[in-house]
Amino acid sequence: MRKMDNRVHIYIFPIPSELNPEREFNDLVSHLPSWRFNKAMSYINCLDRYLCAKSFIMLKDGLKNDFGITGNLQFEYSEYGKPSLKGYPFIYFNISHCNNAVACAISSIPVGIDVECIQFDEDIANNVFNENELRLILSSNDKEQIFTELWTKKESYLKMTGIGLVDDLKALDYNNVSFQTTVNTQFGYVVTVATQQ
Q1: Alpha carbon of 43 to those of 38, 46, 53, 116, 134: distances in Å?
Q2: What's the rounded Cα separation, in Å, for the pair 21 and 87?
Q3: What radius of gyration, in Å, describes the C-alpha atoms of the chain?
Q4: Using the 8-state DSSP alphabet, how is residue 32 labeled?
Q5: Which residues, 6+ apart, have CB-to-CB distance to 72 below 8 Å?
Q6: Three-class DSSP category at 141
Q7: What is the torsion angle, in degrees rounded to the nearest 10, for the CA atoms of residue 177, residue 55, residue 182 and residue 147?
Q8: Domain locations in the chain?
Q9: 102-151 pLDDT, tens per residue?
């Protein structure tokens, strides 16, 4: 766990290469409410099932550690599908996972988190990044890392605002937003957290 500041707690769990997702998922099943179990089971791949379960358990543990919240978690959803904790309007959270890590942010201010495997995708780059962002990526000695940092910045921002995907990802306005990015080259992922200033 790391703190972005005293209002934001960030939990990150790197996925070890030797992890057995089927066994690990089975170990978590008894800790899942039926709706989360059903969501996890909707995935075909065992790793995706595990990631779905692990992200929920991280959130549950974080809410207990940070705010003393125990028992069954109940969620409400915005018109764009962003979840919030029923009965706790001033607690914000967000979860994300990729094949290399699971991440969770819990906060007293609006927050978004995104974790992605380090990669470079030229088609995505041309479609979502503006000229300055493209220049930064293409002039870098590590295109994969810079691409992933910028992609997680956009995703965490969209998740913080709860507006979902927008038509023009090149023109996102980051005014009054703070970002914290963590790069883990050992496990091959980037995590970015967005919060309102």
Answers
A1: 9, 7, 11, 18, 34
A2: 33
A3: 17
A4: S
A5: 33
A6: coil
A7: -80
A8: 2-196
A9: 999 999 999 999 999 999 999 999 999 999 999 999 999 999 999 999 99
Name the token pair of 24.
Answer: 């690990």
Rounded to the nearest 10°, the torsion over CA 52, 188, 190, 28 is 20
pTM of the model: 0.93
CATH class belonging to 2-196 = alpha beta
CA 29 to chain CA centroid, Å, is 21
The percent helix, strand, coil of the chain (3-state, each to 5) is: 40, 25, 35
Helix (H, G, I), strand (E, B) or coil at 95: strand
> How many Å apart are CA 182 and CA 173, to the nearest integer?
22
Q: Is 71 left (phi over 0), alpha (psi -120 to 50) or beta?
A: left
